[in-house]
Design a protein that fits this description.
heterotetramer; A mainly alpha (637); B mainly alpha (479); C mainly alpha (220); D mainly alpha (318); B: 479 residues; mainly alpha; 19 helices; globular; C: 220 residues; 77% helix
């Protein structure tokens, strides 16, 4: 049954020259299960191979983490059965080569993850989260179903090969793009379809949260790439406008939402939204370049997006593991009750710091590389002919820069409030270092983050076959240039060498340390904090997450979230504490989801009256139906 | 041998009914009930191996073969479930022995009526059989003799009778249309003849006839706006009957509709029945989907979901074409199995919590894992989530429709989504969350429920080629 | 068949429609029952005539059933029910006579339009009969919809069913007509008994179906 | 041979900025003092301060973690590397290709990231004030900076600082609207990033108005010395950035021979002097603004940058 079919034709022989896992010929297999007369088509080509690596790397680390984390699980019987099914489903989505298999695995993925979200079902929030999640997921699936129905045509040509061969017309392809953007976007968490994500991801057990945030959203990205880049045929120039618009909004909204959070896991979930935005910016650019035949640039943008997919899966899993370790150690998700954990869980604190630095795009870690590549792609876009893009792309670039800066701010807050400072609750005071399995998983990921950061060339070259397959062009080979610098286009234009920067920093920092300790004093004395002469203030006087975000809230939040601060001052002489209440409103929920729910409730109420009619009135229905049909007959002839 | 099988399908239930009416002892009757249904199932299965020549009254072909097997099978499993269920009802004294006796007799009569309706090769005979089935179910719905039960039975009775009357008028019209071509007498009511000669019938008469048949049998199918009897009948009757109603009787009525649809399809000049069915289907789907939100009674909830799915099936058959018809058949089969499984679960849940009010039950997966997860699995299946069978049929319906009539597909998807949300909203409060309500003891029989769900799961993953070929053949017949 | 036969059959069928209108017009139950008895009588006559001209003896059975059961037994029993329930005085229509009449006209027109599209083929008798039968059916249904209490609805249902029998007998050589009319008689018997049941079990102080509707699982 | 020479030059550049940084800070202070008719501290006062600080023992707050002690070195390293990559007297240095302008900004960003963490580490209220305000300012300054980078990169067709500088030196540049906008924007960003008046006051002792100073409040001894040094490194970095971008005269091209370097260095020092003088004049002639007017200030910078970029995107001629 196994047979090898040739991978997409790559116009460059160089992709064949340097062989890597992604440049193997595609494997295809058809199993006689699933939709009869169609069977289950599975295919492993460069694209799916890459995402398979992402999925399984995430699965590996999550399972490793779970070895230790599972000890603290109170309802393992609600987690263990679904966890492997979840992994299997994600793998199948990536391997599927026909619409039915794809959608079955896609929806099964949602279903199993829903079960995992519901594993702590006694909390009302989790119930709500599970509900919203499943409904949104099914919405996405049904949208994709429509899209595939479109591509498959009336006589049901469901295999991807047939769809590719069908060459859909312009309007058809455009419709497919919109449906794919909605369907895959709702799963990936594109604003405004992200509503379920910050509810569902935190509700699940932490290793599952890591999988959902780090891996499942990437599977959604895969779905989008597969449909739009592979099946839907040649893109039109305005596609990228749509994609970039949503992507830009997603990026900034995601990080702004995150800044307003003080629940650690929810904050991370919102950052997933932000990073999905960054990935989609890359994809949007790739579409734009591809539509205008600038294949090099397209390859660059596409590689940037894929590299960010990989990076985000690394550090987001790492961060969720860290949050999980904190959760098991303190039983707290609310940062306002944490603090000072760096003293009690030093190793966790260290790897979590690596994750924070990586996601904040700080060199020499991996997050920076992919964002740097995205910026390079943006800088290529003035050569685009269409005016819409000329105006769109720089704006998107500004949004990207803004979100990068805000993300750094947000993780200063997350790390500073959670791990630094003084403990804000007995739980935080009594925390202990997490178990070795969890640590192993986190250290593994942290090392990978650093490794990708300092040797990005290896990974870019590994991605070349993928972009060669999907875009039809690849980035120039990186390894073999001077040292390990990466050169997207030309050395004179731009280059970056993570390794050198890393060594450079090590050297200068070490040099300074050495010089000072050797030549000057290395004496040290512990004393109470100076704090401008306010001695031994209580931990309550520290900055909290909310207060840390206050300046940014005043700058952005007042516009986006209609943030209102209300201070109640006790009258002079009254010793009761003053309180500051902050009112935030979620614009997207208020303007999109709430009206929808209200509408459905209204309709349900109205129709529900039909349950309470008399038999005579029901007869009247029958009667009027009969008369109506007879009238139709009378008129129809 | 084969003809015996056909008669067996009819005679066994009839004889069993007579016997059960005579026997006083509950256990014996319950067992006998199971035995009878088993025998019927065997006869039905043996129909595969030898098939009688269509007589002027009875007929077995691929189309009703599907239905017969399905009916007898669900009848069989339901009888197993009903044994344990009715036992519990006796214990808590909701039913007295005479009523149980009556119940079992009626159960077999119902089986007989449905089988007769399915194998009838004569539109008049079919009509009589369906009327008989209706009357039987009316009596069983009212069996608890509570306000609600009687009132539900009464409502069902009145609406059902009107439906019957309309269907009869339609039947007469078909005869009138056939007579000039076929000639007077019995032949003008025989399917096989009618379908052969339909080309020459008077189209105008056929149109009017179909309108009446659609509304008449549509009432039995439970299509909105003719559905009114259905929720109450499901909610107030004994749960096995709810299972049979949802799982079988609706199908039988739908089968009648399909027959007449084929008749119209065979006549080029007559109006295309598709649009009418599509419209009614969509209306039922969307309407029922919205009705799910305000349900307080668990059995009414799933009764409405039955309306929803009948809508989908009617829609699929209305769309026509090999894919949609295949999907319709598949969906019908899957829905029968799943919905009856759900009612099996609900029957025991209602006994455990001794109420049907959703507000008084919660956290079932915590307190009664088997029932809770069984129900959850059933809901997952009925909501059309993979890898269970209904997803496959919904996939086929939606994808094949969108390419042909995008707007319809969008309405369909909207209805599906609203329905799914409604179901899971309720499932959340029934199966998850903090446990609520009483925990009475019950000796439940889980086998039927899980047998059904296993079949649904298997169908979703792998369908045997023979079955596929058969369905495809039937789909071809339906045109 | 000869012209005169056709005219008589036609006349009887038309008479049936006319009487349906009369039923629609009544607002007292007694009067309604009497008019219905007349309806059944006319039906019996019509069926008998059909039996004669089609010389189909089995139709005489149907005629007899119509005569005995519908024209005598049922009206009498319903009469007694009304007395028992003491609801003979109440005006129990939903819509007034005027609108009901107009609607009825409309229905008749509709059924004519629908039926006359049928190719004036084999024999006009069937076609005309069908037109009338359809109007009777629709009028009966209209009555069920516009009557508030069960007795009125039963009467409506029975006249609807009369329309069916008219059609069935009009359909020349149709088998099972007798069985069908028997079956329907049983059905009606069930309904009447049902009303009795509700009365005798003293659950409902009236057979007004709105009262039945008050017991509804979902409310509150 | 060549490699050794390049190493030497790269090293010289690193040492040069490192040595000039405190002097430049002292110079600015001196000029400011003179402008207000004060004698002012001597030019080498900053060196004295640094030495004294390094000799003192570190008084470490009780709540401080290991991170708190590592951060000064991290910040110093990041800043120094960044400074070493900005062409001062010569382009095309050995390591110049290891990080382009975007990376340099990111390096400074990581420095700030860790400094902000340090502000939160001890768990005092003033540290919190400092960090939260610092990141708020950064969250606006960084995008503005990025926009300016875009403009320059689009004009020069590169983000490689050496390439940009050489292009700027070449007559091909001409006078452009977008360049002007970028210059103004860059100056505003530089002021904000270095916490100069009117954004922040490096010499303040009024806690509630402090941003940068509040953040490093708990530092002492050698740690403080490193932080002070990195601050002045950052300042000189920005000045030399402005210099090599907008006044690229006298910068030696990559191939230049050793002796001619003297000219380059002289020119560089000259530019520093001018820059420092202008900065001092600006600072004395303006008052510090409220913290919540900073967003408006930086918003203007961001808008300028975006405008410049858009102009570039829309047509090459601006």
């Amino acid at each position: 049954m196994w047979s090898t079919v040739p991978a997409f034709s790559s116009r460059r022989s160089r992709s064949a020259r340097r062989s890597c896992i992604f440049s193997l010929p595609a494997l295809a297999v058809t199993l006689p299960v699933g939709l009869p007369w169609l069977g289950t088509h599975l295919r492993l080509d460069a694209l799916s191979a890459f995402f398979l690596v992402v999925v399984d790397l995430g699965a590996l680390s999550a399972s490793l983490f779970a070895l230790g984390y599972g000890e603290h699980e109170e309802a393992p019987e609600r987690v263990l059965p679904f966890y492997p099914a979840f992994l299997a489903a994600m793998t199948l989505v990536v391997l599927a080569d026909d619409a039915f298999t794809f959608l079955v695995s896609w929806e099964f993925m949602s279903l199993t993850s829903w079960a995992l979200v519901m594993s702590h079902h006694r909390l009302l929030d989790n119930l709500r989260a599970g509900f919203v999640y499943l409904v949104m997921a099914s919405f996405g699936t049904l949208t994709l179903l429509l899209g595939f129905g479109l591509l498959a045509g009336p006589d049901g040509l469901y295999t991807f090969a047939q769809m590719r061969a069908a060459h859909p017309g312009a309007t058809l392809a455009a419709l497919a793009l919109v449906l794919a953007l909605i369907g895959a976007g709702s799963k990936a968490g594109l604003v405004p379809l992200h509503a379920w994500l910050p509810l569902a991801h935190p509700a699940a057990p932490s290793h599952v949260s890591a999988l959902m945030s780090g891996v499942m959203t990437k599977v959604a990205v895969y779905g989008f790439v597969r449909i739009v880049f592979d099946l839907a045929g040649a893109p039109a120039w305005w596609w990228s406008i749509v994609v970039l618009g949503f992507a830009g909004m997603t990026t900034v909204m995601g990080v702004l939402y995150a800044l307003m959070q003080h629940d650690l896991k929810r904050l991370l979930a919102y950052h997933t939204v932000e990073n999905i935005g960054i990935i989609f910016i890359g994809l949007g650019l790739a579409l734009a370049f591809k539509a205008h035949g600038m294949m090099f640039a397209a390859a660059l943008a596409f590689c940037a997006a894929l590299l960010h997919v990989f990076n985000h899966s690394l550090f987001k899993s790492l961060l969720f593991f860290g949050a999980g370790a904190v959760l098991t150690a303190t039983g707290e998700r609310d940062m306002e009750h944490l603090g000072g954990l760096i003293h009690r869980m030093p190793q966790t604190a260290f790897v979590f710091l690596v994750g924070c630095a990586a996601i904040s795009a700080l060199p020499p870690l991996n997050g920076f590389v992919s964002e740097w590549l995205t910026f390079q792609a943006i800088l290529l876009s003035p050569q685009l002919p269409s005016w819409g893009l000329k105006l769109m792309v720089p704006a998107v670039g500004a949004l990207l820069a803004l979100s990068a800066a805000l993300a750094a701010a947000c993780f200063v807050k997350a790390y500073g409030v959670t791990f630094l400072g003084r403990p804000r609750s007995p739980a935080a005071l009594g925390a202990t270092e997490t178990d070795r399995f969890s640590l192993a998983a986190m250290i593994l990921l942290a090392l990978l983050c650093l490794f990708v950061g300092i040797l990005p060339g290896l990974f870019i070259d590994a991605l070349a076959p993928v972009s060669a397959a999907v875009i039809g062009e690849r980035m120039p080979a990186q390894i073999g240039g001077q040292w390990f610098s990466i050169v997207p286009i030309a050395a004179s234009r731009s280059s970056y060498d993570g390794l050198l920067v890393f060594l450079f920093m090590l050297a200068s920092g070490g040099l300074a340390a050495f010089a000072i300790h050797r030549l000057a004093s290395d004496r040290l004395r512990r004393a109470p904090a100076w704090d401008c002469g306010y001695p031994d203030a209580s931990p309550a006087t520290q900055y909290t997450a909310m207060s840390f975000a206050q300046p940014i809230r005043r700058v952005f939040g007042s516009v986006v979230f209609r943030a209102r601060e209300h201070a109640e001052m006790p009258p002079p002489g009254d010793t009761s504490p003053a309180r500051l209440t902050v009112a935030l409103s979620d614009p997207i929920w208020d303007w999109l989801y709430a009206p929808l729910a209200v509408g459905i409730g209204f309709a349900a109420d109205r129709l529900n009256r039909l349950q309470f009619l008399t038999i005579r009135q029901f007869l009247a229905f029958v009667f009027s139906a009969l008369v109506a049909l007879l009238l139709v007959l009378a008129i129809w002839s | 041998m084969s003809f015996d099988a056909l008669t067996g399908v009819l005679v066994v239930p009839a004889a069993a009914a007579a016997l059960l009416a005579a026997l006083p002892d509950y256990r014996a009757t319950a067992r006998l009930n199971v035995v009878a249904t088993t025998l019927t199932l065997i006869c039905a299965l043996s129909l595969f191996f030898g098939r009688p020549q269509p007589g002027s009254y009875l007929l077995v072909d691929d189309l009703n073969g599907t239905f017969i097997v399905l009916t007898t099978f669900v009848g069989f499993t339901t009888s197993i479930f009903s044994a344990s269920y009715i036992g519990h009802e006796l214990e808590i004294g909701r039913l007295t022995p005479p009523f149980v006796r009556f119940y079992h007799a009626m159960y077999q009569v119902l089986m007989f009526a449905m089988n007769l309706a399915l194998v009838a090769n004569n539109i008049g005979l079919m009509w009589v059989a369906i009327e008989l089935a209706t009357l039987t179910t009316v009596l069983m719905v009212g069996i608890y003799r509570t306000h609600e039960a009687l009132e539900a039975a009464w409502k069902y009775f009145i609406l059902g009778s009107v439906g019957i009357a309309l269907a009869l008028f339609g039947t007469i019209l078909v005869y009138m249309a056939a007579r000039p071509v076929v000639g007077e007498g019995l032949d003008a009511m025989v399917w096989t003849v009618l379908v052969k000669r339909a080309g020459g019938f008077d189209p105008a008469l056929l149109d009017v006839a179909f309108v009446f048949l659609l509304l008449g049998y549509g009432t039995k199918v439970g299509l909105a706006p003719l559905h009114a009897w259905l929720p109450d009948a499901h909610a107030e009757g004994p749960t096995p009957i709810s299972a049979v109603l949802s799982g079988l009787l609706l199908n039988v009525a739908l089968y009648a509709l399909l027959r007449f649809k084929m008749l119209l399809a065979a006549n080029p000049a007559a109006l295309a029945p598709g649009p009418l069915m599509v419209t009614l289907g969509l209306v039922s789907l969307v309407f029922a989907a919205f009705m799910l939100y305000r349900r307080r009674d668990i059995k009414r909830l799933f009764a409405y979901s039955s309306i929803e799915h009948m809508g989908i099936i009617t829609f699929a058959f209305g769309m026509g074409g090999p894919l949609a018809n295949f999907a319709g058949l598949l969906h019908m089969t899957m829905h029968s199995l799943t919905k009856s499984a759900i009612f099996f679960a609900i029957g025991h849940i209602a006994q455990v919590k001794n109420t049907q009010r959703i507000a008084d039950m919660g956290g079932l997966t915590q307190t009664h894992p088997v029932l809770g997860w069984g129900l959850a699995l059933g809901v997952v299946a009925i909501a059309g989530l993979p890898p269970l069978g209904i997803f496959m049929s919904e996939f086929l319906v939606v994808s094949s429709t969108f390419a042909r009539a995008p707007l319809l597909a969008i309405i369909l998807v909207f209805g599906l989504l609203v329905g799914l949300a409604g179901l899971f909203l309720r499932l959340n409060s029934i199966a998850f969350g903090e446990p609520r309500g009483s925990n009475a003891e019950t000796h439940a029989s889980y086998a039927p429920m899980f047998a059904h769900l296993a079949l649904v799961l298997a169908a979703g993953i792998y369908m045997p080629p023979a079955l596929v070929a058969w369905f495809q053949n039937v789909a071809g017949l339906l045109g | 068949m000869s012209r005169i036969d056709f005219d008589i059959a036609h006349l009887l069928a038309g008479l049936l429609v006319l009487i349906s209108f009369l039923e629609l017009y009544q607002d007292r139950l007694y009067a309604l029952l009497n008019v219905f008895a007349l309806h059944a009588l006319t039906l019996a006559a019509s069926v008998a005539w059909q039996a004669f001209i089609q010389d189909a003896p089995h139709l005489y059975v149907t005629a007899a059933i119509a005569l005995l059961f519908k024209a005598i037994v049922i009206p009498v029993s319903l009469h007694r029910i009304i007395v028992r329930l003491g609801i003979h005085r109440e005006i129990e229509k939903v819509v007034g006579v005027g609108p009901a009449m107009l609607a009825g006209m409309g229905l008749v027109a509709l059924s004519m339009v629908v039926m006359l599209r049928v190719t004036p083929g084999a024999d006009p008798l069937a076609r005309e009969d069908l037109a009338f039968a359809l109007s009777v059916v629709l009028l009966g249904l209209l009555m069920m919809v516009t009557r508030r209490n069960a007795v009125g609805q039963v009467v409506g249902f029975m006249s609807l069913e009369n329309g069916l029998v008219l059609a069935a007998t009009g359909a020349k050589g149709m088998p099972l007509v007798v069985e069908i009319s028997v079956a329907f008689s049983i059905l009606i018997a069930f309904i009447v008994i049902g009303i009795f049941l509700f009365r005798i079990r003293e659950r409902f102080d009236t057979v007004d179906v709105q009262a039945l509707d008050r017991f509804r699982g979902e409310r509150g | 041979m060549v490699v050794i020479r390049d190493f030497a030059i790269q090293g010289a550049q690193m040492l040069l900025v490192l040595l000039l940084a405190p002097l430049f800070t002292g110079f600015v202070r001196k000029v400011k003092a003179r402008l207000v008719r004060r004698q002012g501290p001597s030019l080498i006062q900053p060196y004295r301060d640094l030495l004294r600080l390094t000799r003192k023992e570190v008084v470490l707050a009780e709540g401080a973690s290991w991170l708190f002690r590592v951060i000064p070195y991290l910040v110093f390293a990041a800043t120094w590397v960044a400074a070493a990559l900005v062409p001062t007297f010569r382009t095309g240095l050995l390591f110049s290709w290891s990080a382009d302008l975007i990376a340099i900004i990111a390096l400074l960003g990581s420095g700030r990231f860790f400094l902000a963490l340090a502000g939160l580490d001890v768990g005092t209220s003033f540290g919190g004030i400092g960090s939260s305000r610092e990141v708020m300012i950064a969250s606006l300054a960084e995008p503005a900076m990025m926009m300016i980078v875009f403009t320059l990169a689009l004009i020069a067709g590169s983000t490689q600082l050496s390439t940009v500088a050489e292009f700027m030196a070449s007559p091909a540049v001409g006078v452009r609207v977008s360049l002007g906008l970028a210059l103004v924007g860059l100056v505003m960003v530089a002021i904000a990033e270095n916490g100069r008046i009117p954004i922040d006051n490096p010499a303040t002792h009024l806690e509630l108005t402090m941003v940068h100073e509040a953040m490093v409040l708990e530092y002492s001894g050698r740690h403080l010395a490193l932080i002070e040094l990195s601050a002045s490194l950052k300042l000189i970095l920005y000045v030399s950035l402005l210099a090599c971008l907008f006044a690229p005269w006298g910068i030696e091209a990559a191939g230049a021979a050793v002796p001619t370097l003297a000219i380059g260095i002289a020119a560089y020092i000259g530019k520093l002097a001018v820059g420092g003088f202008l900065l001092a004049v600006f600072e004395t002639s303006i008052a510090k603004m409220r913290v919540f007017r900073v967003p408006e200030f930086l918003g203007v910078a961001l808008m300028l940058g975006l405008l410049a970029t858009l102009l570039r995107f829309v047509s090459g001629s601006f």
